[in-house]
Amino acid sequence: MALFQCSLFSTSLCFGTSFHVIIPSPDSDELMNKKDSSYFKEGVEFPVLYLLHGAYGDYTDWQRQTGIERYAQKHKIAVVMPSASNSFYQDMHRGSAYYTYLTEELPSFIERTFPVSTRREDTFVAGLSMGGYGALRLALMCPEKYQACISLSGAVDLEQLMEAVNSGNVTGPFQWHNIFEHPEGIRNTEADLFYLMERNQKQNRPIPDIFQSCGTEDFLYSINVAADKKMTDLGIRHTFETHPGVHDWDYWDLHIQRAMDWLPLNNHKLEE
Amino acid sequence: MAHIQLNFFSSSLRKNTDVNIFLPSPEPDDYLFGQLEPFYQKGKKYQTIYLLHGSYDDCHSWVRKSSLERYAQERKVAVVMPTAENSMYQNMKYGEDYETFIAKELPEFLHITLPLSREREDTFIAGLSMGGGGAFSLAMKYPDKYAAAASLSGGLDMKSLKSEAHLEKMPVSYRNAVGNHEAAIDLIDNVDVKKLPKMLMTCGTEDFILPCNRSFYKKAKEYGLDIVYKESPGAHTWEFWDQSIKEVLDWLPLLQGMV
Questions:
Q1: Distance (Å) from the C-alpha of residue A198 to the closest C-alpha of chain B?
Q2: Using CA atoms, how far apart are residues A220 and A162, in angstroms rounded to an integer?
Q3: What is the pLDDT of residues B44-82, one digit of tens each?
Q4: Inter-chain residue contact B8 with A25, CB threshold 8 Å
Q5: Which parts of B148-233 are beta strand (E)?
Q6: pTM given for the model
Q7: Cβ B6–A3 below 8 Å, yes or no?
Q8: How far is it, in rounded angstroms, from Cα B54 to Cα B244?
Q9: Are B6 and B57 in contact (CB under 8 A)?
Q10: Complete domains list, chain A, with CATH
Q11: pLDDT, tens digit, for every residue of A205-258?
């Protein structure tokens, strides 16, 4: 397995930014156990998973805190891990254009630089907490680009999360007025995931496959349970899993594995 | 430049290894002046310089100690900087196969993973000191892979030096692992001159390694190699190499864009 740590000037953000890219490649396990490395040849196109961090995080989180590289190698999937500051995956009202960076500039660079597939069926986005919301948002805003999205302990109902933060029940680094022009009015806007789901339905646009997981002792558990019900009421097909656990890396390291097992990977293509 | 730090498992080295890569990308001025077209053109590739470090150095040295990134960005050429420890860029007698890694495995890996041109006319090799010897040795052993090769203060004929200078402090156990050093000057005997990359050598006049360069150049001219040699004031220092690499970049047949 190969890890590419990239740093470049982003024309969307107007400053330098870094991201990690995992590309499956023949490793010591394959060498020692005489496994088949023939997948790694010129013209190979790996499926690609964009993997998003949570609040307070950056592009190094997933690499440092989990075994993501092993899981990527196992599934023969490329993984891209960018930084998005505390933007809630928006083009911030006062701040930087992280949504544009993540949906336009970064995929364009990745597709022109690395051996990844550009097909919708091979493109996925996942994240934890703020990144769980981010993964669903990116996929629902650009449903023609992403086949599937994954939320682990995600802030899937942003309105409810804001209420919890404002009432002091939850702490967070979010200065909502920096992120949104009208934080009190995000319902039925592009920051509202359920609005996006309904809009896609009305416009006959595809709905990405959705995988949602949350620990039963997680402070976001009730928000996730309510979101699951809302999606069911809207007729949005999705997979909702709950397991014992809290809002921590033990949960995310374990459940990203379940989520990656769930991904509709067309690995038979690599073996041709 | 996009600065890429790659780490991957190498079967020639039988371990993970670090590689620094510069891939041209828009800088703030390109963004401010609306000059984004030269970059990221789908289906096109970059010309590539394999740039080798000296003894006691590693894949980070060119990045940290020179302004190479700025010079390469101006010329829109990709640069690949591997690590070779103190192997003299040979397949060590008792150790890692650095020659195979740099001449074969690394380019193969990079052609699969990054938009770097496979063509000989787009591929170049250069290095300083031990890396200068390495660049010329690999150019002479694999002439079909490189269109041009450059040596900066190269260790091209270590026997010509009165003492082994800085190599004396290398641990004996390591030197035994490397085995006999195939000097670049000895490889001239077996080359097909017509098939060689064109070559450039630079050296500082106060550099202890100067005799290596004069003896190599003399023999190379006798054998009719397409080679240019430039001496200028300077010693075995990064001040010299930071300047000299610009001469190398100016001399290389760069198209200054994607191909």
A1: 35
A2: 12
A3: 999 999 999 999 999 999 999 999 999 999 999 999 999
A4: yes
A5: 148-152, 198-204, 227-232
A6: 0.92
A7: yes
A8: 15
A9: no
A10: 2-271 (3.40.50.1820)
A11: 999 999 999 999 999 999 999 999 999 999 999 999 999 999 999 999 999 999
Task: Evaluate whether B184 touches B156 at the Cβ level (below 8 Å).
Answer: yes
Note the maximum CA span of chain A: 59
DSSP for B30-65 reads: HHHTT--TTS--TT--B-EEEEE--TT--TTHHHHH
The answer to whether B124 and B147 are in contact (CB under 8 A) is yes
Interface of B with A (CB under 8 A): 1-9, 11, 14-15, 23, 25-28, 31, 36, 40-42, 109, 111-115
Residue B2: in which H helix or E strand, if any?
A: strand B2-10
| B42·A114 Cβ contact <8 A | no
* Interface A-B: count of C-beta contacts within 8 A: 76
Cβ pair A11:B40 closer than 8 A: no
In this prediction the ipTM stands at 0.88
Check CB contact under 8 Å for B9 and A27.
yes
Whole-number Å distance between alpha carbons of B136 and B154: 9
Tokens representing B14 are: 């039988």
The tokens for B104 are 């074969």
